[in-house]
């Protein structure tokens, strides 16, 4: 299986390392992966025989600009060369997300699918803008469009919904989909501190970003909820269809009151069916200690699906970080290798 | 896809009803199922054009012996006829479990796999006795051997471990795998009653059997733990390798003490790696309220996998009952249809 990586940030580098470390294990499963392109915005490399993991690892210890790597059979490359050579089986797309245009990812993905290459993307942009269209394009070209890490990373929200719930209708979705806000709420509970202080702790630990808006105002949760709803409940909703409230107005007083009653505040993204209309909300909710998402702790995430025939399914986990994110891309690659059809 | 059902008890009947109710939905997915055999120990029926769901449903409302059904194109049939006709794609095996010989299921399954028919089984016997052998036989004949409902019914313990954790090594397993004992423990907690009274309630509600030994002595949990360990951690353990303790000696006093401390007793099946040896235990453990399995309530089940690269995954759900069990067989059928390779 010949693959290309496009986008070589934290997750890209972790994925590369995973390919290196798991090489033998993957061979045992019959999966012989040749990584032949690594592309970035400022250029990249191409080795038709497969880039030498060990040698490139040594190179990267001393230098960060991969486009300068020329050892072994590696040549300079860009996406134009990949199009001309037409020699990959799978494109792994990990460029930065743009939620408005989804570019340049959209161009890469469309080219790959239309030309019979499987695509695995870690990028929410194209999924938000054009999931149905891209999935159809994949089906028409008998390849797979895999998005297993776009709504919760290692937590198998997408694959869990598509595969573990196969044959049943998902009737509602409820999830703690953002690790940062979940961490902040837990800090307030456990350390008895204000929202502002808990946010600062999270920023200090590198869990929250300097501008935490996307997380704390609920937009990251909303984005993931939207992907899950459209993919698993066959909807075509947009961000504007979601009533979004973040956690910024929560007081220590209310957190303490909940704890005294044995309850917890959680930021919940929810898709529910009200009179045959799907209602979407992101808001703080008080969970009692019987709720299956009550114990989604720290930076973990969790999701609960209700269904017509398979009952309720709750999935908890999805440690944050580049390694689990990379591992979830590898998971999609293996599921493709095992023949599973995501796209029909 | 032409299928045969062998074994037509509660789950078999529920599966038949599911095929009937989901017919249109399955056609939309491109899955055109023709049920051509329903076989029981005392005989069965065969219709090469596909048994008429609606008509047979009406028949079953008045009569329970399916071997007497002769309407439409249905003829009398047995497994010998199925062998002679050689006209199915998938065998769905739901005969009663025999944990010693696994017969007659083993004979049916071996014939089917060796003759290029996919097999889905709801039967623990063959999985316990010969999973590796049967999986290999399936791989040699390029068909699938699916066991997705043999360790927790609707709870996707097997598929979750095989598919959602693909590419990572599962390093430990921890599970609440028996709904009956979980219900009994919860009754003691909530109603402040003795083990004996809670067991009686469970028996009265039809949750526990008249002879509850298999559940309350931990053997049902042990059986499921064994399947999960062998399948997901690539082991060849036997029941004797598990240290098994049930819940029969629990006192109301100890349950109350745990509750006062905000904790709960749960019957936990566990596979852990101690110095490169897998240790297997089934025993009562005290979980604190941070544990992800703390909120596995009532008849639900839950399992937690730790892994090298995908972090922890906890899966909770798996409502008991014949409909979810049947739905989990349908799930395996759909996953086969979507091309996934369980057996290699």
From TrEMBL, chains A, B:
Protein name: Homoserine dehydrogenase
Pathway stated in the Swiss-Prot or TrEMBL entry: Amino-acid biosynthesis; L-threonine biosynthesis; L-threonine from L-aspartate: step 3/5; Amino-acid biosynthesis; L-methionine biosynthesis via de novo pathway; L-homoserine from L-aspartate: step 3/3
Native organism: Natronincola peptidivorans
Binding site for NADPH: 124
Binding residues for L-homoserine: 209
Biological process annotations from GO: methionine biosynthetic process; threonine biosynthetic process
All residue ranges annotated as the Aspartate/homoserine dehydrogenase NAD-binding domain in the record: 7-145
EC number(s) from the headed UniProt entry: 1.1.1.3
